[in-house]
Amino acid sequence: MAANNSVTGDDLWYIHVRFTILQVLLVFFISTNLLLIITFFKKEYFYTTARYILFAITLLSDSFLLFLSNIQLILLHFRFPIQVWLCIIISVVVILYLTVTPVTLTVMTLERYVAICMPLRHGELCSTRSTMHCILIIHGLSSVPCILILSTIFVSASLSFYKQYQICLVEFIFVDAWQHNFRAGIYQVQFLIMCIIVIFCYVKIMKVAKAASGEDKKSTKKGLRTVLLHCFQLLLCLIQMWCPLIESSLLQINVSLYVIVRYINFILFYLAPRCLSPLIYGLRDEVFFHAMKHYASFGFSVLVFELCVHSSQTSSSRNLEID
Predict the structure, then answer these.
(1) N or C: where does the chain have the smaller number of CB atoms within 10 Å of the terminal CB?
(2) In CATH, which superfamily holds the domain spanning 9-317?
(3) What pTM was computed for the model?
(4) What are phi and psi for residue 321, nearest 5 degrees?
């Protein structure tokens, strides 16, 4: 992170080490996401299936978020100021895609609920057309916090403020303390709504899992494990929504402590949730895993992939395949 004039040589060394570690991690995760995105667009089976379409949305939003967050990180590390209006644009996009991922994960949990608890209506409710409409709704809902947060800046800042040069951090854009509290309040409302939806889906799927038998029980339990992973991933994303409140409070107390906590939060609540998406669908999902291996190995595993797709389509026709 950024250094100030009073840091010692050892402190400066640790700052550069932390920055280098973050760059390596970011390059790794963004590269992995790009491989998964390429895999998604290569096969019609993926971009015509609801759960894979939603998975691709999380990959794209995570990639945008990591890329733009890294731009802010680089500017902060080298203490390179930019005009406030440009910083606001970058920050608004970051806030948007910060919200898109947890909203999409909530929708993916609902999709699993429909697949397990209402299998006969799954094809109707989770068609490709319905999923495309759902993507618009996801971005519409995710833009509400952006609009509300952006409006607090417009009502409290003068026109000259947007022409000033400063380090690009959302905390520095907010003029008054109430704006930090307002942003935290919005995130807490989101946290509550998403938790209610996820808990509802989990309880309903649990009831179906207890009532199922034989092959149905095995498939339902697999779906239940997937929902649990979604819950854990969503929990990390939702905890991330509390981070701005903690960080803005620390910024007023101790800048050095703020930098350390922000670094830890970035690792735990920015990067960690975004490495779970490749785990859930890139490794656990047999069809996607073999497709990814097929393209990563330049086509040597094509036969295994085609067999997996055929098996998945056959199982889906019997309403037994739960991701």
Answers:
(1) N
(2) Rhodopsin 7-helix transmembrane proteins (1.20.1070.10)
(3) 0.79
(4) -80, 110
How far the first Cα of the chain sits from its last, in Å, is 40
Phi, psi of 165 (to 5 degrees): -105, 130
48-60 residue pLDDT tens? 888 889 888 988 8
The CA distance from 115 to 220, in Å, is 10
pLDDT tens digits, one per residue of 179-215: 777 877 888 788 788 888 888 888 888 888 777 666 5
Question: Max CA-CA distance within the chain?
Answer: 69
Give me the amino acid identity at 223. Answer: G
CB-CB contact of 30 with 8 (8 Å):
no
Please state the domain extents for the chain: 9-317
Contact 55, 29 (CB under 8 A): no
User: DSSP readout, 91-156?
Assistant: HHHHHHHHHHHHHHHHHHHHHHHHHHH-HHHHHHHT-HHHHHHHHHHHHHHHHHHHHHHHHHHHHH
Written as one letter, the residue type at 240 is Q
CA dist 27 and 245 (Å) reads 28
